[in-house]
Amino acid sequence: MADRRPAPAFILVAPQLGENIGAAARVMGNFGMSDLRLVAPRDGWPSPTAETMSAGALPHVVAARVFDTVDAAVGDCSLVLATTARPRGMEKPVLGASEAAARIQATEGQAAVMFGAERSGLPNEAVALADAIVSFPVNSAFASLNLAQAVALVAHACAGEVATGLPTGFEASLDEPATREELIGMMEHFEAELDRAGFFFPDEKRAPMVQNLRNAFTRAGWTAQEVRTFRGAIKALALGRGKARIARED
How far apart are CA 143 and CA 95, in angstroms? Predict the structure, then answer.
């Protein structure tokens, strides 16, 4: 039997209707997925309408947890995928559902798939934290999927027989992949030092510059050790800059 990785977490970012949350939980239960994470649900939590729509999946089969931010929801994840039907102008791989399932199966740590709100989809800030984008071959003239339908497509693919491990001839890395919490901490550390150096100028360009940096970092497939090393390098550069400033003042 093929080695099976832990099932991915399904993250609903700012979901609006309890009925859609319940329908998503129901289909997750159908395919053996139990880790549901809700980021700032519009109507609060718990939701009686969600429980009713889930047909018993909530809370007995699927465990729902609520987070204030996307950063917190993906903090323990080493692979994050973002579902979207719209091009975002970001340099990220685009995967189909089966390719996403294979990527999840090959991941050593916790994987997660993010889904956006019914009306507007995922915000760019959330997509920027993802390693890759998941899209579906739908009618370009009518591409919008119901939230639970999108969850069903990914859950079905993940429940099927997918590839495991790495291609023949390659050995798995001995280092643990960095969690999203570790990667976010590194990015925030780097951005804070860039702020001190006056890099983000003018101010109105700060947001796209940060987004470009975060896209580059999330593509790199960092290990936990690489994150620690890079943060050490940031600290050394910051300390060196401080010493140079003191020397000039003397």
Answer: 16
Cβ atoms within 10 Å of 106's Cβ, excluding its own: 18
Class of domain 9-159: alpha beta
pLDDT, tens digit, 9 for 90 and up, residues 223-250:
999 999 999 999 999 887 666 554 445 5
Q: Give bridge partners of residue 132 from the DSSP assignment.
A: 81
Q: How many CB atoms lie within 10 A of CB 153?
A: 20
Residue 19 CA to residue 25 CA, distance in Å, equals 10
Q: Rounded distance, CA 13 to CA 115, Å? A: 6
8 Å CB contact between 67 and 89: no
Please report, for the chain, the start and end positions of each structural domain, with discontinuous segments joined by +.
9-159, 180-249
Chain CA centroid to CA 83, Å: 10
